[in-house]
Amino acid sequence: MRLRDVADYVRGVAAAPEPRKGSESPRLDEAEFKRRFRSQFQDGAFGPLQNELDRVADAAWDAYAHERKSPQTRKAGPGYADPDYDLAVDWIAAKEAIVAAQSRHADADGPLRVLLINGSTRSEHSCPGELSKSWRLVQLAREVLEQDGFAVEFLDLSRLASEYGRNIHPCKACFSTAAALCHWPCSCYPNYSLGQAQDMMNDIYPLWVEAHGVMIVTPVHWYSPTSPLKLMMDRLVCADGGNPDPSLTQGKDAKAAKREELKGWSYPRHLKGRLFSVVVHGDVEGAENVRRGLVDWMRFMHMESAGAEAELDRYIGYWKPYATSHDELDRDTALQEEVRNAARTLSEALKAQRAGRLHQSGEGLTDPRPK
Q: pTM for this one?
C-alpha cells in the first residue's frame, strides 16, 4: 500500500465520514397515516367494527409516531461485541435458524441438499389462472434430483402473488453506506412501526444456507429477472459480506458502521462453495442476458457453477402466441431433456464435491479486491 493510501486509511479510521443527509422526509402526519392504515379494511365484514378499528388505528399511530421498529428485544449476551445491546427477538430467531441450517450443511453424514427455486410469479391461484412453465420445468429437475437421493427443498416464489401474508420487502441498500451496516441475516425487517411485516426472507435464508446446491428456473420479464426473484437476490446481499453482529454497529448507526468498514472489513462469504445451476427461458429476447446475470451474481458470492450443462437459456414458442406457450413446451422435448441434464450435471458435481473430487482452478488464492 502506498504511503498516501496508508495516510488516507488512518484518517478514515480516526474519523469516519459523516453520513450524507438532505432528502425530503417521508414521515406522515396523523391524519394521512390513519387514512392509509384504514384503507386496507374495505371489506363489508369490517363495517360493524369501526370503533374497534379506530382503537387499532390509534395504537398503530402511536407505534409509528414513536418509531418502535422492534418492540420486542432481549440482550445480545455473550459472543457479541456489545453483550448489553438490545437485539430484536425476530433477528435472534432468524440467526438461530441460520446457525442450525449451517450445521445441517456441514454434516458430512447428512443428505446432500438442493434448493430448487421457481422464479415465476404466474400461477393458477392468482390472476393469470394458469401455472407457469417454470413450475413445470422445476418438476422435471426435481424428479431427477429426488431419484438421485437428494433432499430437495422447493421455493415457489409465485407464492408472493398468491398467498396471504407472503412478502419480500425491498433491500434498503445498507451495504452502500457501509458493509458493516448490512447485517447477516437482514435486520431491516420486520419494521412494525412502518407496517413492514410478514417478510419471507427469514424463512428463505436458512434454505440457502443448508443447501449444497441451488437450482434456479425462471422466465424473463422485460429483459430482467422477475420481480420476486430480484427482490430475493437483493435481500441476499447480506449473505455476501454482511455483518453477523448488529451490536458491533449499535444496530443501524451509520457512522459506527463506516468506522468498522474503514478498520478493514473481512467481507465474509456466507454462501461460499455452494454449487449452482441456472435455467432461464423466454419467448422473444433477454434469456441469455438474464442467465448471464444470475450466473455472475452467484459467482460473485463465491458460489460455483456445477458446469456448462448446468447453465441453460432457451426460448419456448419463439414469437408464438402466449396462449399456446404450454403447448409449445409440450412439443419441445429437447428442452425438457436439457433441463433434466442441468439437474443431472448439478447432481454429478455435488457428489464429486462431497467425495473430494471437485476442485476449482484458483481455489485458495487471495482476493486482492475483497469487496
A: 0.92
Exposed, middle or buried, 104 (CB in 10 Å: 0-12/13-18/19+)? middle
| In the predicted structure, residue 13 carries a pLDDT above the cut 80 | no
The Cα 86–Cα 95 span in angstroms is: 15
Which of 178, 114, 130, 146 lies closest to 310, judged by CA?
114
Dist. CA 337–CA 241, nearest whole Å: 37
| Predicted confidence (pLDDT) per residue in 318-348, tens digit | 999 999 999 999 999 999 999 999 999 999 9
For 15-72, write each residue's pLDDT tens digit.
789 999 999 999 999 999 999 999 999 999 999 999 999 999 999 999 999 999 999 9
Alpha carbon distances (Å) from 173 to 92, 177, 186, 237, 238: 21, 7, 11, 9, 10
Cα 340 from Cα 343, distance rounded (Å): 5
Please spell the DSSP secondary structure of 300-338, one letter per residue.
HTT-EE--GGGEEEEESSTTS-GGGHHHHHHH-HHHHHH
Query: Which residue in 97, 107, 82, 6 sits closest to 245, CA to CA?
Result: 82
Q: Is the peptide bond before 190 cis (omega within 30 degrees of 0)?
A: yes
Is the distance from CB of 112 to CB of 204 less than 8 angstroms?
A: no
DSSP codes joined into one string, 232-271: HHHHGGGGBT-BS-GGGGTTT-HHHHHHHHHHH----BTT
Average per-residue pLDDT in the chain? 93
